[in-house]
UniProtKB/TrEMBL annotation:
Xref: InterPro entries: Transposase_17, Transposase_17_sf
Residues annotated as domain Transposase IS200-like: 19-128
A Pfam family hit: Y1_Tnp
GO biological process: DNA transposition
Name listed for the protein in its UniProt record: IS200/IS605 family transposase
Amino acid sequence: MSAHHKELLSGYLRKRHSVTKLVVHLVFTTKYRRNLFDGYMIQQLREAFGSACEKLECDLLEMDGESDHVHLLIAYPPKLAISVMVNNLKSVSSRRIRILNTHIPRQSKSAALWSRSYFACSAGGATI
């Protein structure tokens, strides 16, 4: 386990000049809210999101989904914009799902797996 992940697991990301705890709740929906995912594909998505998070120096805390959407809870560093994270997560997961499930492009009217929109909400519980 990298030092980065140990810092995140302690609850706070400790850097030289800052201590942060940034957690975001993301929701991605399929294009046209198509019912595409089954339990097996949700697991494939979990692995794809986990792999993408490692490359982005994030920590996938939780992930679950239904046939037409997924929820992710991610701890991320302050240098990473949420929009960049979302773009990367959607790209990596879409590519992985299409490689592992060749029937997906035929089911969908559009070439896109994900809707362009997303929901993002801070999930931190700060007290003063």
